[in-house]
TrEMBL record:
Species assigned in the record: Flammeovirga agarivorans
Keyword DNA-binding applies: yes
Protein name per its UniProtKB record: MarR family transcriptional regulator
Molecular function terms from GO: DNA binding; DNA-binding transcription factor activity
SMART domains for this protein: HTH_MARR
Length: 158
């Protein structure tokens, strides 16, 4: 491999490394913000809550697909949310093998507080970055996701 190709690969490696670091630390930051307010909500649980606030009564598979997690991981995630009185599961009337996940009264009551905490964290994480730069970054990351899906579709479908 020539030096120009190595330099190109090195810069692209830096991108993938910073994506991973930003994801880990962003998730940690959001989780800590919830924790400081006494809320038993992780980053992944936040995603589940947002999905349920948008449309209550979803099948667990929807969360697995969105979060790119296997069934066992989603079951554990939902179990923990159920223990913290955030969700409840009921049999799916259209498919007896699955259950639908619904928000509890507690989760509905916490919506404004939780969204406020998340928005504050997001603004802190993106402080000093102009909206046009955020939109550009989103475009780049969306193209990275498209490439992952294009070249490694089997990973996403597992």
């Amino acid at each position: 491999m020539n030096s120009l190709m190595r330099e190109d690969v090195e810069e692209r490696r830096k991108l993938t490394k910073i994506i991973a670091q930003t994801s880990r630390l962003g998730n940690y930051t959001l989780g800590r913000a919830f924790e400081k307010e006494g809320l038993p909500i992780s980053r992944e649980q936040w995603d589940v809550l947002v999905m349920l606030w948008e449309k209550d009564g979803r099948a667990q598979q929807e969360f697995a697909t969105f979060l790119l997690k296997n069934r066992a991981s989603i079951t554990s995630l939902i179990d923990n949310m159920e223990k913290n009185s955030l969700v409840t599961r009921v049999p799916n009337p259209n498919d007896k093998r699955s259950k639908l996940v619904y928000l509890t009264r507690r989760a509905r009551d916490l919506k404004d507080q939780v969204i406020g905490i998340a928005e504050t964290s997001i603004l802190q994480i993106t402080e000093g970055i102009e909206l046009k730069d955020i939109q550009f970054a989103v475009d780049i990351l969306r193209r990275c996701l498209e490439n992952i899906n294009k070249y490694h579709k089997q990973i996403i479908e597992d």
